[in-house]
Amino acid sequence: MVHILGEKRKEKSVSSHILGVPMIQEWVQNPTPESSRHLIRAYRESEWRSVRLEVLKGLHKFTDLRSFLFLVEVIRKNEDLAEQMLAIRALAERSSGSMRSRSVQCFLRSYLPTAPDTLKPTVAYSLGLTQDFHSISLLLKEWDPAVKNEDGLLLKNLVIALGELKAFESLPKIRELLARSSGLESDLMMACMFALARLERDPGLIAPFERAFSEDSLMLQIYRSTLSQIQIRSQFKLEDYLSKIFQHPNPHPVLPLELRAFDEKEVETGLEVFDAKAQPKRFLFALQGLRTNTRAKILKQWFRSMIQSDQGGGNMSEDEWEALIPDISSLLNDTIYKSVKDEIASLKEPASLDLQLKWLDAIAPYVDIEAEGRTFLVDTEDSIAIRYLNLWSEWSLVKGLNSKVIDEWIDKFGLKPMVFGRLIRACAELNHPLKKFSQNWPTDFKDRQLRSSVLFYFESQPELMDLKELLNQVLLLSQLERENLGQRILGVIEAIAEMNARAKKSMAGESRLIDVLKMFAGHFSPELQIGVLRTLRFQPIPGFESWVMERIKHAHALVELNSIIALKSYPNSRDASEALVEKLDSAVRIIQGRALDSLCAHTSLLARRAVLDYLMANLDEEEVVDKVYRSFDPENRGGPEFVQKCDAMLQVNPDHPQWEKLVSLRDRLSNNSTAAQAATLDAAGTATLEEIDKKLVSVIPHFKKLDAMTQSALRAAEQPFIDEDTHKLPVDKAPTVLEYCKALDLILDRHLGQKYLFPRLDTQLHDFQTLWHRLGFGEDYPNLEKVVTALGLKGRIAPEHFPLHKAKMMCGTFFNGKILQDRFKIFDGLRAWAVIFLMFTRKLPVASTSGAKAGEPLLKLANSSDEKAVSIAKRLMTLQDLRNPAAHRQTYMDLASVSAVRNEAILLLNTVLEVLV
Description:
The chain has 51 helices and no strands. With 917 residues, the chain is mainly alpha-helical.
C-alpha cells in the first residue's frame, strides 16, 4: 500500500494523461465520431466536475449527430447550470462559420421561450453567435419582461445578440435603455455601446450620452470609440454597400445586413441596377438585407424569372442550381417558404434523388420530412436512403417524432437490411421504443447485417430485452462473430445490469451470463475487458473480484479506470480497499477521483483512514472537500479517531472557504447521539422514559406526533432537567444544547423539507434556480444590499445578520443540481433552514418564476405569514450561533447556564410545529 499523505506526486507520463485534460484536448483536436464517443464517455465516467466541463468546452468543434444528441440531452435534462450553459455555447459555436447548422439554430430558437430564466441569457447570446436572423423577433419579445424584472444579465445578452444580428429595429429600445444610464450596471452600458457601434448611423443620436460617461474614464473611452465607428458608418451611402456586395471579391458575411438601415423602397430600386440572372449568388446574398415580406416578393419574382429562362433554353444546370441551394436556404423562414414553395417544388421534383435530397435539406425546417419517406426509402440506393434517415433523425430531435410513420416504414416499405439497420439505430439515438420490432428481434438478429443495429437499439431500451433470450442467441454465434459484436453485446448486458441495479434486482444467478462474461473477460482486447468491468460495477457477480483487481494494474488506462469503478461494488473487501488506496496517488485526475469515490463506499478501516488522509492532503481543492463531504457515509464511520482528524483540520485551517462543510463532516462523524443518550441514562440510573415523556408533553404539546428519532433527541436534551443525580454530576451539559438543535433540525427536515421543499425540488428545480438568479446569486459576489432589497427585508433584518455566506454556498448546490442528491448534507444546520424560510416561504417583491407574479412564494405554508417566517429565521440563526460553541470548545457545568438556551429552543420548536404540523 502506498500511503498518500505527504508523498510527492509522481511525474506525469504521456500514458498517464490518457484520461486527463491533455488527452481530452487531443480528442478535441481530432473531431471525428470516434473522438466524440471517447469524449462523451469521459464525461459520463469522470467523478470530477472540472473534467466534465472540459469535455463540454471541447465539443464545439464536432459536427457529428452523436455529439449533437448528447449536447441537447445535457441542455434538456441536466440540472447543473454551468454544464447546461457550456452545452448551449458548444452548440452555438459548432453552428457558426463554416459549420453553421440550421438544426442547431432551430433548436435554440424553439428553446428560448421555454428556457428557465437562468439559461435565457446564454441562449440569447448564442442565437446572436449563430447569426440566426430569424430569431430577432423572439429576442425582442424577451426585452420588455427583462426590463420589467430588472434582469440586467438577460438584457445585456439581448443587446449583444441584437447587435450581432444587425437588428436595426432594436435601436429605439437600446437608446431608451441608455437614457436612464444612472441605473444601469457598467457591463450593460458597455453592451449598449457595442450594439450602437454596429447599428447606429447618426452620431447626433448618441451625443446626449457623453455627459453620463464623463466621470468614468473607461466608459468615456468606449463611448468615444463607439462614436468614431458611427461617424465612419454615417459616411457610407446605399450605393457604396450595394457596390461592395456585387463587386468586392470577398464581401463580409454581414455586409447585406447594413442594407436594413436604409429605406426598403430605396434598396429595391438599387437592386434593380444589378443583373440578378448574371450574378445569382451575389443577388441572393444581397436579399439578406431585406425584411421578410419584401424578401419573399423579390425572391418569388427571381425564382419565376430563372425557371422561365431555363424553360426558354436557359443554361442553369442541376449543378448550378445545387450551388445556389445554401444561398436560397439562408433566405428562408416560414413566411418566405410558403411564398416560394411551388417554385422550389417545380425544381425539386424532376431532379435526381441526390439533388432532391439536398433541396429537402434546405427546406427541412418548414416541411413534414416524414412525408418524403416513400420517395427516398422505396426502391432507392442504400446511400440515398441512409442520407435521408440521417436528415430525418437530426430534425426529429428538434421537431419531434411521428411514431405512426415509423411503423408504416417498417410494415409497408420493405426496407433493405442496411436501411432498416440505420432506422433501428436512429430510433435508438432518439430513444424511441419500437414495440413491434422488440417482439420480433430474434428473427432480425439472424440477419448478420442487422445484428449490430439490433444490439445498439437495446442498449437504449434494455427494458424491452429478454436477457435469457439474448444470451441464448449470443451462445449460438461463432467465436469470430461474438468477438466482432462483443462491445455491442456487453453494452446491452451493461444496460440491463444498470436497470436491475436501480430496481435492486440481482443478475448473479444467471449461469449463462457468467459464461458469457468469462468468455469476454479472458479476451486480450481491452475494449471487451472494459465491457465486462462496466457490467460488474452494477452487478458485483461472485468470482470476479480477483479478476477485477488484476485489471487495476492494466497498462490500458480505460481498463484501469473501469476496474477502479467496479471495485466500488466490493465494499467489504480489504484487498480491494488496499488496491484503491494506491490509486489515490495517480497522476491522472479521473483515476484519483474514481478511487476516492470507491473508497468512500468501502467499510474497511483502511479505506476510511485513506479517505480522511486524502482530504487532509488536498484541503485546498474544492472538489475534494465537496466529494468527501457528500460521499463519506456517516453510518458506522464515526469514532474518536476521525473526529480528531477533522478537529485537526479545522484548527489548522480556521479560514477555510468550505469551513461549514468541514464542520458538518466532523459532526456527522461524531459518536451517535442515541448511544450517548443511552449511556447517560444507564449511568444516572434513575430517570425513566415515562417521566421524561410526561415532562416533554407538558412543554411541547405536539410531542406525541413527532417521529421516534426526534422524540429520542428531545429525551436526551431534557434528561438532565429530570434527574437530580445527573443534575449534580460534574459533567458537561452542552449536549442539551446540541440535542435541542438536532431536534429542530429533524423537525424541519421532516415537516418542511420532506413535505414541502423536496417534492417541489424534484419536479421544479428550475423555479428555485430562477429565484436565486433573480435575487442576484448568479453573480460571483452577490451584492448584500441588492439581495436584502430583492427579498423585501430592508428594515426587517440587519444586513450584517443576513446569512449571505450560507445562502451563497447553498445556491451553488441548486445551480449545479447537487441539491437533488445531497439534501441531508446541504441542509446541515439551522442556518440553512433559516435561508429557506427567508427565501422560499415568503411573499417577495420579485416574481419567483417566469410565469409567477411578484409576491407568490415558492413554498406556501398554510399556517405561516411573512412576519412569522422572518421571526423563525432570525431565531434559528441565533440558536445556531449558540449551538456552535457548545459543539466544540465551550462547556456548561451547571443547568442554569443552559436553561435560557433550552427555554428559547422549546419556544422556537413550538412555533415551528404550529406553522408546519
